[in-house]
Amino acid sequence: MTPRPPDRIDGTLLRLIGVLGLGGVISYFDATIVNVSIHTLKAQFSVPLSSISWVATGYLLALAVAVPLAGWSVARFGARRMWLVGLASFLVGSSLAALSWDAGSLIAFRVLQGLGAGLIEPIMLTMLATAAGPSRTARVMGLMTIPMTLGPVLGPIIGGLILQNLSWQWIFLVNVPVGLLAIVLALVAIPPDTPSAGQAPPLDALGVALLCPAFAAVVYALSQAGTAGFGVPQVIVALVAGSVLLAGYVVHALRAEHPLIDLKLFGGKDFSSSVVTMFLLGGMLFALLFLLPLFYQQVRGHGAFVAGLLVMPLGLGLFGTPIAGKIADRFGPRLLVPMGATLIGLGALLYTGADAATSQVLLTAALLVVGFGMSLVGPPTMGSVYRTVPAESVGTATGAVFILNQIGASLGIAVVAMIVQHGLAAGTAPATALGTAFWWTVLGAAAVLVAGLFLPGRPQPPTSDAESTLKSVGEPA
Question: Could you tell me if 183 and 88 are in contact, meaning their C-beta atoms sit under 8 angstroms apart?
């Protein structure tokens, strides 16, 4: 029988993408469905925007805390087991969020959701990267975004329908049936794996204690600066504490044998450019998902359901990711990422001056352009990460990328919430305050364009048959 080509996307890999994608989609779905309900939750709990924004920011920060634990826990307990633990934690957090009695309890339960999602996403990508091998990684990441893109597409619509017809609690309860189905399919389709407990590196507890509070302090400072300004004591103290903790982590990481984020990986230009790009992409995407529902509700006067429909084109544009992944496997990300960044910047630029009179046709077209631009940035960049690190560093690299991507997302939300809140507090019209915040995405796109020029070019053909020895997760040895 003719051997199967090493770069073919086979049935086993497709099944793995489907099963893992169903679990991964709920975290993205949850982000967009919550963002479209920010206006409702703000009114429900009678708190300012800077406070209720922590429903989104706290989730993302908790996710960033859990991500570095994913690689260690897989080596210690096994990928399948930790995948199921992540799903279960997410579902418990979703159920408890529906029982929240005030904004503080809701934020706390969202943190539990984020801890579960922090295990789901990196374990998912690590399993897929191992199963795909370097020659298929970008294509697999592109295919993976098909189910995951359903989150940004369906989240705003279903969120709007729920808020229009049901109580806000169903924003969180809707996750439960999808998560339960993902658990059942994972139990059936992903066979148990054998953890390498004796080979698991020790957990960098000091790194966790330094890095995670550092970013939490910075995000807190930005959220408070939106209403109080940068000169108040709590903002100054938080910024100083965050800076000191971050500097302490750098000193620690350069000396530690198994740091939380291995700074030595950043010695390579290709990897550093990839991480910077994913950091900025997270900031731009989640800033937009936070701003757009507010724009359509506060500036255009639409209800939650219509606002969800009008945000949908952003998700539809992301369906270009499989094409981008296929092109990147042949020509490299340096060709696509600057092109995608240009499209993101041009599309977001329209929203910086948009108001109630701006043509909806133009606004919809701009979101499609932004979504398609992001599809040209994400999968090619992730593919370049796995090409630029040794096989034994894939887990560490995945953790680093996801930590910084989610930190970028949480900072993106905090910054735009600060800009909007500051503008509204100063008496600025909502259209002007939101338009100023949309410049964050334009500037981020310009930075991605520059970073994309330093990404790898055309991939080199494999020099050995080592790739063919990589077996899909679940494929018999």
Answer: yes
**Single-letter code of the amino acid located at 321:** T
Inter-residue contact 39 to 298 (CB < 8 Å): yes
- CB–CB of 453/334 below 8 Å? yes
Residue 461 or residue 82, greater confidence: 82
Q: Report the distance separating Cα 441 and Cα 445, nearest Å.
A: 6
Q: Where are the domains of the chain?
A: 12-192+258-462
Cα distance between residue 120 and residue 20, in whole Å: 9
CATH topology of domain 12-192+258-462: Growth Hormone; Chain: A; (1.20.1250)
Distance CA 197, CA 338 (A): 42
The whole-angstrom separation of Cα 304 and Cα 297 is 7
Which pLDDT band holds residue 95 (cuts at 50, 70, 90)? Answer: very high
Q: Distance (Å, rounded) from C-alpha 271 to C-alpha 393?
A: 12
Query: CB atoms < 10 A from the CB of 63, how many?
Result: 29
- Tokens linked to 164: 């229009």
Q: What is the pLDDT of residue 437?
A: 93
Residues 327-373 have pLDDT tens digits of: 776 777 888 899 999 999 999 999 999 999 999 999 999 999 999 99
DSSP string, 283-322: HHHHHHHHHHHHIIIIIS---HHHHHHHHHHHHHHGGGHH
Specify the residue for token string 């964050």: 440
Q: 280-335 pLDDT, tens per residue?
A: 988 898 888 889 988 998 899 888 778 878 888 887 777 776 677 667 767 778 88
- For residue 420, which of 443, 445, 439, 405 has the smallest C-alpha distance? 439
Residues 437-456 as b/e (b if ≥16 CB within 10 A, e otherwise) read bbebbbebbebbbebbeebb
Token pair recorded at residue 354: 């948009």
**CA separation for the pair 215, 209 (Å, rounded):** 11
d(C-alpha 67, C-alpha 118), whole Å: 5
Dist. CA 314–CA 125, nearest whole Å:
23
